[in-house]
Amino acid sequence: MQILGEDLDNGKVLCRSYACTYDLSVSFNRNGYFWKSLSFVPRKLKELYDTGGEAFLARVESENAHPVFYSNRLYTHPTNSEYAQLVLRAVLKRSGIITFQHSISTMVLMFDLSRDFSGSLWRFRNPTAQDRFWADPHVLCRDGKYSFI
User: Fold this and answer.
1) Looking at the DSSP assignment, which residues form a beta bridge with residue 3?
2) Do 70 and 10 meet the contact criterion of CB atoms below 8 Å apart?
3) Given 8, 87, 118, 143, which residue has the most CB atoms within 10 angstroms?
4) Percentage above 90 pLDDT, the chain
5) Is residue 48 scored above 70 in pLDDT?
6) What percent of the chain has pLDDT over 70?
7) How many CB atoms lie within 10 A of CB 14?
């Protein structure tokens, strides 16, 4: 649960929770999340009432003092093709055709030249070209245009 700000999904966090997921049922997952999160708002309202507005907001600020980078996509309902991919992956996993998955990690250079700090990675740009390797990149501003060396 968070207080929304300029950056979607990167507001001040009031309450954070984690839960298990179930492979075969989106509605079962959603129902579990709804029941789990049902107590969040009353709990935070009671805390606000008990501690007072200034103390409550001071604690929220101190708990959100360190920047958190949000790198996931903005939440939207999955498309039909995304649902189909999830179902296919679950069926293949259950049937034993897929036993494991591995991914290759890569590093990506990204930048944001705005004056305000943003923890939302979707605001950042990727200047890299496929034909280059950036060892120690530097940003130069010449005549109002930015370039990388």
Assistant:
1) 12
2) yes
3) 118
4) 20
5) yes
6) 79
7) 19
DSSP summary character for residue 17? -
In this model, does residue 67 exceed pLDDT 80? no
75/1 Cα distance (integer angstroms): 14
Confidence band, pLDDT 50/70/90 cuts, at residue 43: very high
Strand partners, 146: 141
Q: What is the dihedral of CA 127, 131, 137, 140, to 10 degrees?
A: -60
**Could you tell me if residue 96 is left (phi over 0), alpha (psi between -120 and 50 degrees) or otherwise beta?**
left
Phi first, then psi: what are they for 139, rounded to 5°? Answer: -100, 130
Q: Are strands 139-142 and 2-3 parallel, antiparallel or unpaired?
A: unpaired
Domain ranges of the chain: 2-72
The predicted model scores a pTM of: 0.51
Kindly state the average pLDDT of the residues 9-26. 83
Residue with tokens 């930048």: 111
The tokens describing 97, both together, are 């055709």
C-alpha distance from residue 75 to each of 15, 72, 81, 96, 123 (Å): 18, 8, 16, 31, 16
Rg (C-alpha) for the chain, rounded Å, is 21
Ordered DSSP codes for 100-128: -----------B---SS---BGGG-B---
